[in-house]
Design brief:
With 68 residues, the chain is of the alpha+beta class. The chain is built from one helix and four strands; from the N terminus they run βαβββ. The chain has a domain of 41 residues: Macrophage Migration Inhibitory Factor (2-Layer Sandwich), CATH 3.30.429. The protein starts with a strand and ends in an 11-residue tail after the last strand.
């Protein structure tokens, strides 16, 4: 059994998180042979201010807008 914990910024839709979870479970299955049913995925969502990259607090996730 595998337990995966993902920390990500708040702002993604439920559908985006479902697609992400499916892709992660599929990747673990391909890489290890572990059945998807034996992989537990926990997603923790955090406001951007709680995540720091290169000394800078990150903004909340925002879906990119298409260029016009």
């Amino acid at each position: 059994m595998a337990i995966l914990t993902i920390d990500m910024r708040i702002g993604r839709t439920d559908e985006q998180k479902r697609r992400f979870a499916t892709a992660i479970l599929d990747a673990v299955n391909r890489a290890t042979g572990e059945p998807r049913e034996n992989v537990h995925l926990i997603i923790h969502e955090n406001p951007g201010i709680n995540l720091v990259e290169n000394g800078q607090h990150l903004p909340d996730f925002a879906k990119p807008t298409p260029e016009r």
